[in-house]
User: Fold this.
Amino acid sequence: MGKKQVRPPRALPPAPSAVQDDVSQSRPKRKKSRTKATLASASLEGFDETVVHRSSEGIEPPTNELKEHPEAPVQKRQRKTRLPLELETSFTQKKTSNPSLLRNENGIDAEPTEEAVIPKPRRKTKKTQKAQLQYANELGVEDEDIITDEQTTPEQQSRFTAPTGISQPVGKVFVEKSRRFQAADRSELIKTTENIDVSMDMKPSWTTRDVALSVHRAFRMIGLFSHGFLAGCAVWNIVVIYVLAGDQLSDLSNLLQHYKTLAYPFQSLLYLLLALSTVSAFDRIDFAKTSVAIRNFFALDPTALASFLYLTALILSLSQQMTSDRIHLYTPSSVNGSLWAAGIEEQILQPWIVVNLVVALLVGLSWLFLSYRPGMDLSEELMFFSDVDEYPDTEIKASS
Amino acid sequence: MLQTSNYSLVLSLQFLLLSYDLFVNSFSELLRIAPVIQLVLFIIQDIAILFNIIIIFLMFFNTFVFQAGLVNLLFHKFKGTIILTAVYFALSISLHVWVMNLRWKSSNSFVWTDGLQTLFVFQRLAAVLYCYFYKRTAMRLGDPRFYQDSLWLRKEFMQVRR
Assistant:
């Protein structure tokens, strides 16, 4: 974790300058300290090594500390316990003071090196109490001040900034991405979130409304097909009936004999097509908005007329269900239990033929009316594009 | 917010049930070789209508309008569909019971009376209207306005409170 968290802080601007300063100042001491350090403590070797190849500054302080304060390891231990926690929150500050420290493999190791790095100048003069005072004072310090401070007296600054980092204001925001915190400028973050919002708005290019609209259009295509098919079927049906019935309906028994297998299937097909066509025609005039539909009807709008004709045809067709079943179950009157007593054929069949003729006419007329304005679809306009139309007054009122 | 995929799925289910309903209404009279076939078809049809009612109500519950407490507004907007669906459901069940009662002994007999014919006409007519209104409602519920706060909704809310 420690390693992961460390990365973002590197990007912060003040860090490189501070490091460079440190490097330049600490170089002369480094050679001295190195010789002593190797002899003095084996315990520090570990983190020294990790730090060495990253920055020259990292090496120096531990050696100094060892040289001047043999009790340093004990202090380190005490601090260690507290530090890992701080690492999580205050790594930004550490980074500004000394980025190299943060690159250590784990938080515990990194912290001691920092502690070791820091002490030099102050510990010689006074100690922790004074440091705490400054700690308190620095809480109110602003970002820019810290940076300049650091540049002038980098070692002092680096010594105390580590703990203060927790509460210091930073111009960065740390966003947790895939279990690690990454630094980001506030302004950039705002921009990116705005972008995300925009992309979220743009992204669902295929909205539920589009789905509904596409289904609606698909159904309109089915309806268009059924209008024509129904008109053709009805005309074919009436032609077949008249042909089978013979001249002046003289051969009704012939009609019954041949048509009885056809009657019920055709009745079913007629209902299916009529239902589809009626629904489709209602869709076109947006029948649910009764006022609009009635107004259109009285204005003799072809589509509204077609819907009305389809509905009439549907009712007429349904009313012939009983007769169709009777034809379906036709047996000659001579057969026992026949539904068709002699002489009633014409009485039953005549109205049935007339109704079929009327249905065929209505359906054909509807088809003509609809094909007069095939593109008209009030449902689509009112249902799907009514944002502006349906509630214009409310929005205007609200905005004024 | 209603997900597009969810809505597509629900819409296809609704259309499947509607298609089945239309199919049975059209061809059930032809499929009466044995009374059991018709019985099964009718039972499934009634269950399909019931399912459609449940689905449309679940869609209502899913809207922001409903969750904001404007049940009245939803009912007002879709009362045609709700009432018509209920009427159609009642008509269907009564017709199915009547027809099955008459045809159970001999499925291929002539059972029509004037009453049955009238009920038949009303049921089939209601079926067409139900199909139209239900389809319209299902597609209107795809309108994103029902799933988000808007000026329009606030205005409606104020009107309802008055």
User: Anything to note?
Assistant: Helices of chain B lie at 4-27, 35-62, 64-67, 71-103, 114-140, 151-161. Chain B has one domain: 2-161.
